[in-house]
Design goal:
By secondary structure, the protein is α/β, with parallel strands linked by helices. It has six helices and six strands. The radius of gyration is 17 Å and the shape is globular.
């Protein structure tokens, strides 16, 4: 799915047919995030596919991610409820914390606060406060697996050491120009599955 820009679209007229075609051709992993601004379209499309009787929810592996401005536990829980509603599902197969850089959330908005220079305002929220929310939903069965994306090895190790439920998955950029051999070895040692994004390089998207 990563090879087709239509599958990253926020336009339902583009994304819906692309996603349906991908599923018809055998794709079963749907990787999205709140920041991609297409969870609702994906949820609607999957419901249409289920109603056609070709696939069921159990056939699809849905992965989504918590935005960086919702690391505060109460914000995280509120966002998770929205994401479940958007995707029209009562469980997520893999839920990740999207970025290891918490930012303050705008009051009453699903967006990050910025200063007068347009820069993000950092939020001093310990990663474990957010991770415990993921553990809670994992124990409830709402998340079938949990993990991290775009974190440093040092921060991954800290979370791993303190976590009751260890991260199952890490998603990060990895391709021929950024092979990440050291990270792969580090994650393998911790028995965390490494999923690459942009495996043929981010430069590819400038060419299509």
């Amino acid at each position: 799915m990563i090879f087709n820009k239509s599958l990253q679209s926020k336009d339902p007229n583009e994304l819906k047919p692309a996603l349906k075609l991908a599923l018809e051709e055998g794709y079963r992993l749907v990787d999205t995030a709140f920041l991609y601004e297409n969870e609702e379209i994906i949820g609607e499309t999957l419901q249409e596919v289920y109603k056609e009787g070709k696939l069921s929810r159990q056939d699809i592996f849905i992965e989504t991610k918590l935005p960086y401005f919702c690391h505060k536990p109460e914000d995280a829980e509120e966002m998770i409820a929205k994401q479940l509603k958007h995707l029209q599902t009562d469980y997520i197969d893999l839920f990740l914390i999207h970025w290891g850089m918490p930012a303050k959330k705008k009051e009453g908005e699903d967006d990050a606060e910025k200063d007068s220079d347009g820069k993000l305002v950092p939020a001093l929220i310990p990663f474990m406060d957010t991770w415990k929310v993921l553990e809670k939903y994992y124990k409830k069965g709402v998340f079938k697996s949990i993990g991290l994306s775009n974190f440093t090895n040092e921060d991954i190790q800290k979370i791993y050491d303190e976590a009751e439920i260890k991260p199952h998955n890490y998603q990060g950029e990895c391709h021929i120009l950024l092979p990440e051999h050291e990270r792969a070895a580090f994650l393998e040692k911790l028995k965390i599955i490494f999923t690459a994004y942009a495996p043929i390089g981010l430069f590819f998207f400038q060419l299509v």
